[in-house]
Amino acid sequence: LGWKFYDADDYHSPENKKKMAEGIPLNDEDRIPWLCALHDILRREDSSGQDAILACSALKKMYRQVLVSGASAIENNQPEQPGKNAALKILFVHLDGPMDIIAGRLEKRRGHFMPPELLKSQFDTLEPPSAPERFITVSLEKSLPEIVLEIERAISQG
After folding, report:
1. β strands within 38-151, DSSP E
2. Picking from 91-95, 111-115, 124-128, 149-153, which range would have the lowest pLDDT averaged per residue?
3. Model's pTM, two decimal places?
4. Which residues, at least 6 apart from 85, have a Cβ–Cβ distance to it below 8 Å?
5. Which segments within 24-148 are labelled E, that is strand?
6. Keyword Nucleus, does the record have it (predicted)?
7. What's CA 133's distance to the chain center, in Å?
């Protein structure tokens, strides 16, 4: 697509990385500053007219609202209203699949701070996207080319 790519894991604080490496799941308090920083990156790209892809485990609806609207999503418990800092237009891609497939992929990953043992806590936290959020759900049981094609189709359809 020629878009900038960001991996949200690169933006976790050293404290968050240490906590996860010790097998301790992050909580909302740990994640909110990280999500606000990610929103700022997306806002900067949007302001410069650059499309971007962010790989991020935005597990809860509130987390996705922070990505779209920034800190005001927490303060007001709702997305920003149209105006100077209008909410970003984000298409969320919910990669959905059984825990055993995802666990198998995590087992093969090397050098990452999050151990596979934290996967269950992520499933426990997960609030799959729902209307009125802008999202598509793509099965991880498809091949990588099929997944990419499905995402590209959704992007091109606006």
Report:
1. 52-55, 92-96, 135-139
2. 111-115
3. 0.85
4. 43, 70, 72
5. 52-55, 92-96, 135-139
6. no
7. 13
